[in-house]
Amino acid sequence: MRISIDTDVCIGAGQCALVSPEVFTQDDDGFGTVVPGRASDAGGPLVREAARSCPVRAITVEEVTA
């Protein structure tokens, strides 16, 4: 799974960090970011729910097949 946040779109609502704190956090300016090392190995329904909960749809979750 590949997870990314469009930093040009993110408004820092923090919903991602509330829904899935093991994968998402907020930087020093309050904007969403993926916890280092979790962008490609995290999965599960909470990550998808965090993406859906983003009010500006800044989070992209892609399935990666190897």
TrEMBL record:
Keyword Iron-sulfur: yes
InterPro entries hit by this protein: 3Fe4S_ferredoxin (IPR001080), 4Fe4S_Fe-S-bd (IPR017896), Fe-S_cluster_ET (IPR051269)
Keyword Electron transport in record: yes
Domain 4Fe-4S ferredoxin-type positions: 1-29
UniProt keyword terms in alphabetical order: 3Fe-4S, Electron transport, Iron, Iron-sulfur, Metal-binding, Transport
First and last residue of the signal peptide: none
Cofactors that this protein relies on: [3Fe-4S] cluster
PANTHER family in alphabetical order: FERREDOXIN
Purpose: Ferredoxins are iron-sulfur proteins that transfer electrons in a wide variety of metabolic reactions.
This protein's name: Ferredoxin
Source species taxonomy: Bacteria, Bacillati, Actinomycetota, Actinomycetes, Kitasatosporales
